[in-house]
């Protein structure tokens, strides 16, 4: 069912690092992320805002870039590698497989490599960033949901199995996965030793479904919703609060002023030991909102931020999730 994993990959990706988004109104987006989620600004100018969570020492985990014409898209998702020499190995590794790889210079980061996975997802690898003081016990800086750190991405890809195999070659292991019969529909992959760094879902892609920040207290999930309502973003509380089946985390999903989807959730379990087997979830009999509550709206399953300049491909078989609309229709029929 699952493709093999290379436990000694050619280069060492360590964790989810950062995401770059395009926005139409920098001040409005800054307001959402600082006052509803509680991120802090590391640096900013008239066209770019760099933010981090309260527990993060590295300069940024979220970069907002003003683009009035192309707002609502994602430029790249970023991962950290352990050493600078890993970047040199990664450059050759991607080039040898006919995949794009080029060096770029970016503010607040050391040498940075732009690469692309086989689905067309634009990635950014770096080994070092400038640092700022952690603010996790500087309670006077706390706002909104007190978001602590960036944890993971979820992306769409037209073939979940093929892309899971690709990231498995890079050392990404599976904590849990969703399947229907013998078909893999989504995989929850990690490098940092928790359940997730990258979730891959079979759907029209590549596209960024969401990125997620951790919070320290379960009540902070409700605080995110409260502050979204206070600030005028209440209609953007798209799903939850609820509890996931895979991972078991409490969560809520919010849409920012440009439609980007961000999750806030409490922490999940460790997955460091090699004898831990991935957990299979049956898509044919189970909603991922398995413990309680209703399924998500249809738009939660199909809408996502496109990647800038990247064409999308639909899957061979369109996904058929149990949406809230379908659930209510089937219940009314009985």
From TrEMBL:
InterPro entries from the UniProt entry: Glyas_Bleomycin-R_OHBP_Dase, Glyas_Fos-R_dOase_dom, MMCE/EMCE_epimerase, VOC_core
Domain of life: Bacteria
Keyword presence, Nucleotide-binding: no
Entry keyword Metal-binding: yes
The entry's keywords: Metal-binding
Protein known as: VOC family protein
Pfam families hit by this protein: Glyoxalase
Record-annotated membrane-spanning stretches: none
Domain VOC residues, every copy: 15-128, 149-267
Ranges in a coiled coil: none
